[in-house]
Amino acid sequence: xxxxxxxxxxxxxxxxxxMNIFLKExxxxxxxxxxxxxxxLEHTLGLGHKPNVIPPGEADINKxxxxxxxxxxxxxxxxxxxxxxxxxxxxxxxxKVHKYPDxxxxxxxxxxxxxxxxxxxxHLDVIYINEKINQEEWHTFEVGKxxxxxxxxxQTGEMVIHNMREKxxxxxxxxxxxxxxxxxxxxxxxxxxxxxxxxxxxxYQRATGAGSIKDLWVDEHPEEEQTEPKLDHQDAVQHAQxxxxxxxxxxxxxxxxxx
Length: 259
Hints:
Layout: H1 15-45, E1 59-60, E2 66-74, H2 77-86, H3 91-94, E3 105-111, E4 114-120, E5 126-132, E6 139-146, H4 150-167, H5 178-189, H6 194-208, E7 213-214, H7 227-247
Parallel strand pairs: 1-7
Antiparallel strand pairs: 2-3, 2-6, 3-4, 4-5
Helix pairs in contact: 4-5, 5-7
């Protein structure tokens, strides 16, 4: 056998060399299986970005009034169970379960045929997605009105998620979840908040280079910026928060009023 212990004089591999090859092959296969498992899990949960379903068009925030709803549907099955555990529902959480919303109950903002949602990428960081609404899957509650068209709503959803990620990119059951997103988006798109939205959107544009909204600073309905409508706007957001509080299952009591 040679001094290296790798190949014998007759050209055969040593036991040590064969063991090294075997271990490397095992590690490679193990990594492959782990990757397959990770991809399968992500597929089951639907994690990651999804295709934009909003039809292409010019973003406009001065259109006819439309109803805004918030709604929830369950993140079901084994995927929902893993989702809850992966996002911190464990021994530490169960010590304070009375204060935590059920993370398998997913909230979004719905306008006409589309829903606008906070979701997660493969690293469990928050992202924005939109989907067509299947009415049978959603429990919905009307909470206000908006003049934003669908493309403006999409860009607003992207802005809200950008601002959330600037503070904390990772999903958090308390402070970075779908309910937080819904409240922030409602606050941006509701009637009576034109000037505030325009200011926020310009800051977002400068930071990202993204987004374009027709006549951003032109307010065709200045009467909605007056004191009383502003109070109505605040009341609508508070109403939405209360609706989600009243209709979100708490982890110690799986009996939602929507069930």
